[in-house]
Amino acid sequence: MHFGCSARRANDPEQKLLESQERYSLTMSTTFAATGAASSGITLDRKTLKALSRRSDLPGLIYLAKWLLVLLVSGYGVYLGLGTLWVWPAMLIYGTVLSVPVYAMSHETAHGTAFRTRWLNETVMWVCALLYLEEPLHRRYTHTNHHTYTWHVGKDSQMPFDTPMTFPNWLLEVTGFALTRSHWRILIQLAAARYTETMKSVIPADEFPRLRRNAWYFLGFYIAIGVAIALGATWLWWFLVLPTLLGRSVMLLFTLIQHVEMAENSPSILNSTRSCQSSPIASFLYLNMENHVEHHLYPQVPFFALPALHRELKDQLPTPDPGFWRTNLEVLSVVIRRSLGRNTKAWTIRQAPHMVTDGGSVAKISERSM
After folding, report:
1. Residue 12 lies in a domain
2. What angle, rounded to 10 degrees, do the helices at 136-148 and 87-111 form?
3. What is the pTM of this model?
4. How many structural domains compose the chain?
5. Is the pLDDT of residue 316 over 80?
6. If you placed Cys at 366, which of 1, 89, 153, 284 could pair as Cys (CB 3.0 to 4.6 Å)?
């Protein structure tokens, strides 16, 4: 099999997709390969990558200032709506502004790329982890594993849903029920020192005492919130608990489309991961993580440099799928048709060939790993 023919052909996105599909068919069900730019056949000038990977405190601090301002404005909307039905849409808006950046910033700080100063990065990681409901070191280690074995069945410890996805799985995911249940289960397991085989395989043994201590801190914090609400601090209910639950559903619509309907067990990020077009508002909330293929190819590049990374790589990558709403609506259409035993061809988003069927029963490929 011959992959390298000419410079033009090597940089042709369609040719790269063809080549990656060939690599996928060769490696499926045989061996696992660490996933990234090298395994995907993507190249970037070393000097350019070094420049794009340079960390800085300023973009993160500017982002935090803007985020706080938007939180104050949207939170004031909740205050104005208290005692009326308008409080619910106000909480949805405020909860979205709270939950999507909490996820995105906890993810970025887990990579250690949000800020150049380590203590600043770790402080923001802890605050966001508390709001995201996941112990930060567990998140960091399992996410590192996710990048090493992206969407590899039995290897990737952050596969949040069964594949192929059906409508009941979609509901569990986007309501936030599955993720919240998973986060509570993990916290209790860590606090009780009941470490799973997955945890033992991705987390160094000498880190477990720290994870157990942190889990107790987290549980104590959540219990304190519950006690405070019971004693009359109802503002926590309206400005923290309910908005987090409402906004978590929007956050999960962002994260769902990162890998859904893509290929398991492929060494190529082009097969397993999706980038989407985005509006300025969505890019702000999501810290430019709509460039998800680019992020998986070069995870050392900070969030503020992802648009520049996209421009450098766009001639080597498939065209990003449509924006947030169109992509999610197409995914919903596909999973409903799959659950009804109908054709599952997606018309406007990228989709792994084996996800397309003419109907019939759904054969499970993998189970959620978190």
Report:
1. no
2. 70
3. 0.89
4. 1
5. yes
6. 153
